[in-house]
Design goal:
Radius of gyration: 12 Å
Strand order of the largest sheet: 1-3-2
Number of helices: 2
Oligomer: single chain
Largest sheet: 3 strands, antiparallel
Helix content: 25-40%
């Protein structure tokens, strides 16, 4: 699940802390964009789309947003 793409590492750390408190692991990936280097924040490893959708509902209740992505 992608939580978002950010330019501020401090913001990413705060979001990772929120995810951890909500019970989800997270990982980051540096990516190059036309607007410079950004940090992609992703949460969890889910066994199914249904598990990811259920987690997204809980993540939204914690005040975060996200988007379920396929692993292609």
């Amino acid at each position: 699940m992608q939580i978002g793409v950010f330019s501020d590492a401090t913001n990413v750390k705060q979001l990772q802390d929120k995810l951890k408190r909500a019970g989800y692991s997270s990982r980051t990936e540096k990516i190059s964009t036309p607007k410079g280097e950004k940090i992609r924040l992703r949460a969890g490893n889910f066994n199914s789309r249904q598990d990811a959708d259920a987690a997204l509902s809980k993540i939204k209740q914690a005040g975060l947003s996200g988007l379920v992505m396929s692993n292609n």
